[in-house]
Amino acid sequence: MLNRLKATVQKAQQALTGKASVPPDFRTLTVPSYVQARVDNGGLVLVNIRKGLIFQANPMGARIWQGLAAREGPATLNELATEYHLSREQVVSNTAQFVSDLVKHGLLICQ
């Protein structure tokens, strides 16, 4: 499991930095049926019904979640970098960490 997660994060970083033509990480990550999501102006709330876990994220986390759900790629990262006045590298790093945390808490499944 840990090796698959590391590989997925590496693939995500390659895809998000434009070093891969198709974002393979988005195809290997799925939202389990026992996870409910709600996005609003304040951010994101995820609930893992099986574990009773509630996970909150800020508006940037909500945008990343929406991009994952829509299987969007590098263009979304450019938009985030512009909107939040961050470097593209920082957005890639934040996204990789966010995805890693979601997988670690069972809110995404790495296949």
Give structural notes.
With 111 residues, the protein is an alpha+beta fold. Helices cover 53% and strands 19% of the residues. It has a domain at 2-29 and 59-105. The chain is built from 5 helices and 5 strands. The strands form 2 sheets. Strands 2-3-4 form a 3-stranded antiparallel beta sheet, with helices on one face. Strands 1-5 form a two-stranded antiparallel sheet. A hairpin with a 4-residue loop joins strand 3 (43-48) and strand 4 (53-57). The N and C termini lie close together (9 Å). The relative contact order is 0.21.
Q: Name the beta content range.
A: 15-25%
What's the overall geometry? Answer: globular
Kindly report the average pLDDT value.
78
Unreliable parts: 19-24
Number of E-type strands: 5
How would a crystallographer describe the biggest sheet?
3 strands, antiparallel
Compute the CA-based radius of gyration: 13 Å
Helix content: 40-55%
Spatial sequence of strands, sheet with the most strands:
2-3-4
- Structure classification: alpha+beta
Compute the separation of the termini in Å: 9 Å
Helical stretch tally: 5
SSE string: HHEEEEHHHE
Features:
alpha+beta; 5 helices; 53% helix; three-stranded antiparallel β-sheet; two-stranded antiparallel ribbon; 111 residues; single chain
Topology:
Blueprint: H1 2-16, H2 24-28, E1 29-30, E2 35-40, E3 43-48, E4 53-57, H3 59-69, H4 74-84, H5 88-104, E5 109-110
Antiparallel strand pairs: 1-5, 2-3, 3-4
What is shown here, in short?
The chain has 111 residues and is an alpha+beta fold.
